[in-house]
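Next comes this protein.

***
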Amino acid sequence: MTLAGFPRIAVDPAICGGRPIVAGTRMPVSDILEMLVGGANVDEIVADFPYLSEDDARAALDYAASSGI
């Protein structure tokens, strides 16, 4: 189920223990945040995970900023 206001972010208790993920993937928002904190930029993340788009990575960051994670 995608989250209200965040159509690219989903939560499903059967996937990744219910942690927020990029919709349609098993990529947790927290993993994207960890990569960004570790110094990766959005272009590098998309290159390493071709099933993600720049919009997916930015949506994860927007979700984290608004939810306080």
Remarks:
- The chain has one domain: 2-67.
- The longest strand covers residues 6-10.
